[in-house]
Amino acid sequence: MAASRSGRFKVISAVVLVGLFVTIFLYAAVPSKRVLSYIQPSSDKTDKKKPDKPKPHPIYKPTPTPAPPIVDNFPLAVDAREPTDLPPIPSWNAPPTQHVREYTPLLIGFTRNWLLLQQTVVSYLTAGWPPEDVYVIENTGTMNANRNGNLTLQNPFYLDYRRLTEVFGVKVISTPTLLTFAQLQNFFLHTAIENNWDYYFWGHMDVVALSREDWDDVPDEGGYKSLYMRCVEDMRKTVEDGYLIDKQNHKGTWAIRFYAYDRLALVNRYAFEKVGGWDVMIPFYGTDCDMHERLTMNGLIQKPGHVGLVYDIADTLGDLLRLYRRRPAKEGETEPAHLLPEDERGSHEWEKLRDRLNSMSVSKNNGDRNTWQASQEGGQGEPYYRDPAGFEKAIEMWMKFGQDVMAEKWGHHGCNLRGVGLSAGDEWRVKHDW
Ligand SMILES: *[C@@H]1O[C@H](CO)[C@@H](O)[C@H](O)[C@H]1NC(C)=O
């Protein structure tokens, strides 16, 4: 009797156990309702039952009126295949036939607006920068799409890779993914480390650099110099004055040389490494302030220098040929403008160019600032396409967020950190002062 009762018990236990396993297995194997909603088409029976019930979502924003199409600002370069298809660099600005003994890399970051980038690059080349030293850091987040020529001019992230490398002769390095301003600055630093550069120049992509053709020289300084040669000269002075001034021969007593506010800067890589680079937790505005304050807190020198004109500009000249400084056509001359002989240095034409750039820069700083980024709207259907207005909006949100991080980091709103008694090492340790 006892044996048969324990046998029945075993059978019942086995049945219960198997049942439990089956239940657990079914739970694990059958996707939940939420998972099903991802893998099944969203239209189900309830939609068919009530066909006239309006969908509450999505309700679209009004479609913006389309912007006029972008036209290339350097028509001669559109058909150019090699550097000799363009006019020569103005003779008074031509880079030295033999490169100066120092390397002089100039890094220019690019995310949007080809016209402004092209204008910036051409202005540095016509101001004497050796093309092989100009590095466009393509930060479009479109992988190899530009190198393959997959994007079109109407796409905000378009860049003419072939023209930059084959016609202008400059270099293009693409970032592995879209970087924020702070990350891009660290990418510059990374590029310097990888290339063994002790220092590098970096410039904004919405500027026009112009040599001071009217610069009256002190005779013993050797006469007129291009903006590039003045950069070389100032770099030599900077390196001599502060680079190895430390008694222990430590590098890095100077950090930055600023030209024309911060539109062009010479950076001492070692100084930036010493303070741990840029804080990528502050993605855009505010991160420059954080960086420059930390450099000063650590006793690293930042000083302005003078090398020429660098205008901050949100628009483009009608034709970049103007920067090549050809003589204006005389009455009756019918030759194409690019085949005309060179103008004279410091001519009336140069003054007109300078005044034009100056007024463009004034209008940018009177409210046109940051309008240029979102002026291109095409590229739908091209690789890595993003909605241009959405991209702009998201960046604005990130900018705001970064300022909150900055305030939290230092316990203080705004840029005046040392002014309120903060110093190196206070990061994240100070209570809010608001
Ligand atoms: C991009 O360009 C390459 C090279 O021209 C071409 O092979 C490829 O099919 C293009 N891809 C797209 C998505 O257009």
UniProtKB/TrEMBL annotation:
Spans annotated as Disordered: 41-69, 364-385
TM annotation in the entry: 12-30
Pro residues: compositionally biased ranges: 57-69
Biased composition (Polar residues): 364-377
Taxonomy, superkingdom: Eukaryota
Composition-biased stretches (Basic and acidic residues): 44-55
Record's keyword terms, sorted: Membrane, Transmembrane, Transmembrane helix
UniProt protein name: Uncharacterized protein
Organism, scientific name: Saxophila tyrrhenica
Lineage, uppermost ranks: Eukaryota, Fungi, Dikarya, Ascomycota, Pezizomycotina
